[in-house]
Structure formats: structure tokens, C-alpha cells
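Many introductory courses stop at the sequence. We go one step further.
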Amino acid sequence: MRQCETLIVLVGSNPLPNYLTATLLQPKRLSLIHTPETRGPAERLRCVLGNQAKIEMRALANASDAREIAEAIRSIISDGDPQQIHLNYTGGTKIMAAHARMAFRENGGRDENASYLNDGARCLFFDDGRLVSLENQNLLVTLDLIGWLHGCEILPSSGGGINGPTEKDACTIAVRVAVDAKLAKDLCDTAQRFKEQGKLQKALEQPWCPQEAGLTLSAPQVPEEHWDDNRFKAWWRFLGGGWLEVAVAAWTRRVTGLTPSQGIYWRLGGRAFEIDVALVRSHRLYVISCTTDNKLGLCKSKLFEVAMRARQLGGDLARSAVVSLIDGQDSNGRYIDQLRGDVESVWEAPNKPQVFGLADLREWTGTAGSPNLDSLKRWLDS
């Protein structure tokens, strides 16, 4: 689409919509209207977009002051041709958006040059009725970019490294767990024993043999004599539930043709958190939390945590899901239906978190027939 001369954006706590709009419209001049609370996101936007446009920072002392908001818009428009100035009012507070839009019109701004990002429709909507789809656009969104825009600090990963557990190992375990879910708990118990022992030499006194569990893995026993502490630690973390993360990442890659990130450790606002599996497709962030637990309460907490984290990083454009081993039922119905019902009743975002359980794992691994990833694909295509 045609490059605009000047773009005004309202910077909120999530700078991703601002980035998407600026990358799509490619302005020569970009005015970032921010408050003291959103100066950090505005500064990061300036760093990312500074090579594409001349950046102008416009600070508001009070996001609720209608006169100050109107004056900021009037001042920007007075410096150029109103017909060549575009306002995107997706970000900021509702008060900022409402008064900015009124001031834009009152100072000669055209409806065709005012827009907002519609999360559900995946489009940039113009106030004259036009729209531009975000699909198939080269928006250059990556997981690292999303993290950086939010000021996330990257922490060291605890990945398996060389000679660690393999993707084939993960899928082998997934197939067996789909048949006998108790195996997942047995593996967790083994991992917990190794963790409590702490030292490789101590664990060698009573190694774990996969064959005894009906598994053929790349390691004939855990640990082996020639291992170092890092390899040993990678394996007990893998047995403690990491295998599900690796398998989900493999199935996600098979469905999308893209390689997801796995085992990400970030710190945001002083709090460290982990993302099990994440993928960016075009402009949309997908975040998956994996747990080998089957308790309703824990799965519910995992679901709300990943939904909150996905929305915090990707806004309402983001998708979130939990893959668990939840199954069975009580007098109120199936546990997984209860969990999905709880989410439907309290989650206000337009994109509801998705719940996958043991039945889905059986489909994905082909326990009762050929492997079928359709349910995962539908979610990743949403």
C-alpha cells in the first residue's frame, strides 16, 4: 500500500499493535504519543523503527486530560498537510483514543486516514470502510522482537545441548503415554528421585533403564558412566515432563512447516517466567504451556497463566493453549469440558485459550489409528 507521510500512534502498554501499524503503513514521519507509564515501550519502538522513519516523541503528562490530548494532535497536524497525516488509535487508553480521534477530525484529518487494528478480523480498518488484511504481509515479527518490545530480559536456557534427549525420544514416550498415562507419573517420579539425589555419581548407583518401561530411547540407561552433570540434568528434566514440550514442538513444526521456539526463559518487570513452546506466524503469537499433570486445578492454573502471558506479550492477537494429560470425569461431567467451560465463563479476551487433553494426545500419536493432527492444525490456523 501507499506510504503515508506522517503517522500518529497512541502508545499503550503493549507496543505490538503500534509496531504492526507502522510497519504496514511505512510512514516517513512517526509521532509516538505516550504517557510517563508508556515511555519505555515508546523508546523501544523508536529504537526498532528509527531506521524506517523520522521519529517524534510526544509526551502527555496525563492520559485522562482531554485538552492535552487534543493539543498534541492539533500541534502535530499543524506542522504538516492534514490530508497527508494518518492517525491510528488502536493503542493508549480509551480516553486517549476517543479524544485523539475527535481532535483529528476537528483539525482537518480525514476518515480515510484514521484507522484501528481489529484483532479478530486480522485487519487494519480505516474509518471510511476500507480495510487491509494483515495476512501475507511482510511484517518482520519474530519472538525475539516481541520480547524486546516489551523489555523482556533473556535468561539462560536449560536446554539439553549436545547428546541430550532427542525429538524421537520425546515422540516415543508420547506414544507410550497415550496408551498408558500412568507412565508419565512414573517418569516424573524417576526425575524427582534424580533431582533429589542431585549428583551424577549418586544417581549411577541406581540408574533408570528405559527398556524396563517398554521404551527404546537414545540412552540405554539414565545416567551413563561417561555423562557429565549437564547431560544428566537435561535428561531428568526431560523425563520430568520436558518430553511433552519437545513432542508438541515437533507436531507444531509438522503442521506449520515452521520451527517453534522451546524452553524460553525471560524476565519481565522483575519476574522470571518460562514459555514452553511458542511460534509466530505472520503477526500472530501462539504460546503453548505443556504439563504432564492431569489434575483439574493445576491444569486450570496453567491455562490461565499461559493465557495471561500470551495476551501480555501479543495482545488480543495472540493465541494460547495448554496441552495436558487431563482426562476422566466426575458427577459434573468430563474434566476437560469443565475446564473449557470455566475458561469460557471468565475469560474476557476475544480469543479464548484452547485446552488439549489426553484424548487429543491419543489422536496426535495415532493410538487408535493413523496419527491425526487436525485439532492442533485448526488451532494453529485460527
